[in-house]
């Protein structure tokens, strides 16, 4: 095998790698952030919920209810996608809370969290800030 053959093999391999399309959705489930959270909260095993959220589901829901009752934080209803009062198109209160928990409970960067939830870095920053200063 001469160097021309090696170059041809390398070029063919390189070209095959370049032609592979990258999926546009999240690699962990094939779902967008709000779909993932909805399915996760509805169907996940209690141990998985503790692992991901770092708390029991009942605690997560109590925290969500407290935020809705005592702050101006609002979002889409994750069950019906009907708009609740306030900002946050297509971002549920559950997803906002999960984004915040993801950032503060592990060494996750804004970029990692944006990728995980399939949101922009600006969206992640907005909701982390909103939960730090719920006013």
- What's the total number of strands? 0
Distance between the termini: 71 Å
Helix content: 55-70%
Topology pattern, helix = H, strand = E: HHHHHHH
Average pLDDT, to the nearest integer?
A: 78
- Strand share of the residues? under 5%
Q: From the alpha carbons, calculate the radius of gyration and give it in angstroms.
A: 20 Å
Decide which structural class fits the backbone: mainly alpha
Principal-axis shape: elongated
* Tally of DSSP helical segments: 7
- Tally of separate domains: 1
Q: Describe the biggest sheet?
A: none
Q: Are there runs of 5+ residues with pLDDT below 50, and where?
A: 21-27, 78-88
Walk me through the structure:
It contains 7 helices and no strands. It is mostly helical. Helix 6 packs across helix 7. It is elongated, with a radius of gyration of 20 Å. About 13% of the residues have low confidence.
What's the helix and strand layout?
Layout: H1 3-18, H2 33-43, H3 46-53, H4 57-70, H5 93-104, H6 110-117, H7 121-132
Helix pairs in contact: 5-7, 6-7
What's this model, at a glance?
The chain has 135 residues and is mostly helical.
């Amino acid at each position: 095998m001469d160097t021309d053959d090696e170059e041809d093999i390398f070029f063919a391999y390189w070209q095959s790698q370049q032609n592979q399309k990258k999926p546009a959705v999240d690699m962990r489930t094939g779902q967008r952030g709000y779909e993932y959270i909805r399915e996760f909260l509805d169907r996940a095993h209690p141990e998985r919920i503790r692992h991901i959220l770092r708390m029991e589901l009942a605690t997560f829901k109590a925290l969500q209810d407290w935020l809705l009752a005592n702050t101006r934080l609002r979002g889409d209803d994750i069950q019906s996608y009907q708009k609740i009062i306030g900002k946050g198109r297509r971002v549920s209160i559950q997803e906002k809370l999960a984004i915040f928990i993801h950032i503060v409970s592990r060494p996750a960067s804004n970029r990692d969290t944006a990728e995980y939830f399939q949101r922009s870095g600006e969206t992640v920053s907005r909701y982390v800030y909103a939960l730090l200063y719920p006013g």
